[in-house]
Amino acid sequence: MVRFDSNILLKQEHNQKNQSDFNALFTIQYLHEAEAKVILVSDWKTNTSELHLEQVADFLSGIFQIQVVPLQGISCNKLSKVKDLQKENIYLIESLYNIKDEVANCLEFSRVLSTGVDIFVNDSFSSSHKVLASTVGVTRFCYACLAGFHFEVKLRLVKNLAETNKKPYVAIIGGGNLAEKAASFRFLASRCHGFVFVGMMSFQIMHASRVQVPIDFVDHKALPEALDIVRLARDNNVKILYPKDFWCRNKYNRKQLHVFPSHEILDGWVPIDLGPITLDEIGSLLSDCKKITWIGPVKFADGSEETNGGSKLAKILDQLSKGNCETTVVGTTACNLVTQETSSLSSINMVENASAVWEFLKGRKLPGVMAVDRAYPFEIKWNNVYSDPTQSLVVDIGSGNGLFLFEMARKRKDLNFLGLEMNEKVHTRS
């Protein structure tokens, strides 16, 4: 069973340059070519006629060039028999979007969902921060629970946000709801050298920094968290950059636009986008960076095509990523802008779902990751294991107490040896 990300596989247009699309497709194609009986499950919305089970099965058949057969019954906790499924086909279970037992991680529903399944493959990283029957519950009934290629790549990118091997490291932070995300800044402040605020959250930071801003954009309930972030940045020598000017729209004449300094916005004008001075300052700060993470949209009241700061920021990152700057973009809006504005997607890392990343930055363990942890391929630093990791590797599957392997290693210094043994008692005793 493969839990796939419907937001990726059900796109109307699949750009082969998009590595996320490729990895999501490759997981399923790989399993099918390995002659596994493959059952797909996801939670696409069913409020439009184009997304009924049969239409989705036909759509996926066209993508995979393999017949995808719909399976009915899961909404009634009675799935069609799966023992007689043919390997030549791929099978699709109806959408879990409106099923309460899915969100409740119901044990009985999980058992029915995993009927006949030996191996569970989670390839929906966008759901990894949720506890669902299709991502967590089913793992109790499967022999092995693994990460798909798409899931594995996204998890690696998210973990890489914690690495500080490249400096200076700057986080560009957009969006709003500062109070909900405040816990993430302690994590970021311990790793980054600068914060660049580009969304609604910037008004809270400016207010905490005693910069006069329109009172309508200040969330007074978030003031304690904003003050803590400013204090935390100061204590960790993290530079804070907030907008110095804004494009604003006249409340009474929507066609009228004007640029105001952030501390001199006149009554009757509403900030809608980053101003030119701010974008120049951001470009200057980022020019020397070796690592940049952009999370959250550049979004204020209502944007304008004439003042599209998000697109301009995407172009800045595109140029930097072509050099020696590791760039990661998080969130659907930011990823879409980068896709539209960049010449080569291969130079920028993208994680479409921001919610899972914010949960990771808060220091929380992602349930979807923990559910496959026992079978997940842990990262091993081979340079610490072998004196010369470039030598040919000999793998002994079922190495027992390892006596044979040790004797071989003594005789052949020109080879590296790896023993695999699933019997924990033998492993502990040896």
Written overview of the protein:
It is a single chain. This protein is of the alpha/beta class and 430 residues long. The chain folds into 3 domains: 2-156, Rossmann fold (3-Layer(aba) Sandwich), CATH 3.40.50.1260; 163-361, 3-Layer(aba) Sandwich (Rossmann fold), CATH 3.40.50; 382-429, no CATH class. It is built from 18 helices and 17 strands. Strands 3-4-2-1-5-6 form a 6-stranded parallel β-sheet. Strands 9-8-7-13-14-15 form a 6-stranded parallel β-sheet, sandwiched between helices. Helix 9 (201-208) packs across helix 10 and helix 11 packs parallel to helix 12 (309-321). The protein starts with a strand and ends with a helix. The mean pLDDT is 87. It catalyses: (2R)-3-phosphoglycerate + ATP = (2R)-3-phospho-glyceroyl phosphate + ADP; guanosine(46) in tRNA + S-adenosyl-L-methionine = N(7)-methylguanosine(46) in tRNA + S-adenosyl-L-homocysteine.
Chain-wise SSE layout:
Elements: E1 2-4, H1 6-9, H2 19-33, E2 38-41, H3 53-64, E3 68-71, E4 90-93, H4 100-103, H5 107-113, E5 119-123, E6 144-147, H6 149-160, E7 169-173, H7 178-181, H8 184-189, E8 194-197, H9 201-208, H10 223-235, E9 239-241, E10 245-250, E11 257-261, E12 269-274, H11 276-286, E13 291-295, H12 309-321, E14 326-330, H13 332-341, E15 348-351, H14 354-361, H15 367-371, H16 382-385, E16 393-397, H17 403-411, E17 416-420, H18 424-429
Parallel strand pairs: 1-2, 1-5, 2-4, 3-4, 5-6, 7-8, 7-13, 8-9, 13-14, 14-15, 16-17
Antiparallel strand pairs: 10-11, 10-12
